[in-house]
């Protein structure tokens, strides 16, 4: 990746930098993401944890399940990341929190079994009822 991606929360207290190209970008329709973000679907990008750094502020961690931690700004509440609780090697970053989210385009939909009925998917991207999909090589 030639350029560094940067982003942060709504109030600007938390800022981050990404120094590697995303290995994946997707839409998640799971109920946990819907509730954590207050939205019908969330767009995530995945990068190696070593390529993600918080450059300002200190995100608050929330153990949202036995499987994962979610990080958000403690001042404004902006949801920022998701990472595995055990041995995290990658971090998922909310694409909408990037300073310029336009270039990072999701390529599939996950957990469509939890898709809210009134939310219509208008694209032709692959859809997976759960998280059973071909995985990129990390």
**Shape label:** globular
Low-confidence stretches: none
Instruction: Give the percentage of residues in beta strands.
Output: 25-35%
Number of helices: 1
**Looking across the biggest beta sheet, what order are the strands in?**
6-7-8-9-4-3-10
What is the domain total for the residues? 1
Largest sheet: 7 strands, mixed
Order of helix and strand elements from N to C terminus: EEEHEEEEEEE
CATH architecture: Beta Complex
Could you give the count of β-strands? 10
Separation of the first and last Cα atoms: 16 Å
* Rg computed from alpha carbons, rounded to a whole number of angstroms: 14 Å
CATH class: Mainly Beta
Helix content: under 10%
Instruction: Could you tell me the CATH topology label.
Output: Metal Binding Protein, Guanine Nucleotide Exchange Factor, Chain A
Structural class of the helices, strands and pairings? mainly beta
Summed over residues and divided by their number, the pLDDT gives a mean of 94
């Amino acid at each position: 990746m030639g350029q560094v991606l940067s982003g942060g929360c709504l109030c600007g207290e938390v800022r981050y930098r990404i120094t590697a190209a995303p290995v994946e970008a997707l839409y998640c329709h799971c109920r946990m993401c819907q509730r954590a973000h207050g939205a019908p679907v969330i767009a995530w990008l995945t990068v190696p944890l070593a390529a993600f750094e918080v450059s300002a502020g200190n995100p608050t961690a929330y153990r949202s399940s036995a499987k994962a931690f979610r990080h958000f700004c403690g001042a404004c509440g902006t949801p920022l990341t998701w990472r595995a609780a055990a041995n995290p090697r990658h971090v998922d970053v909310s694409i909408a929190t990037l300073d310029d989210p336009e270039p990072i385009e999701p390529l599939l939909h996950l957990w469509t079994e939890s898709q809210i009925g009134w939310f219509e998917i208008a694209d032709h991207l692959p859809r997976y009822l759960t998280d059973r999909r071909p995985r990129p090589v990390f």
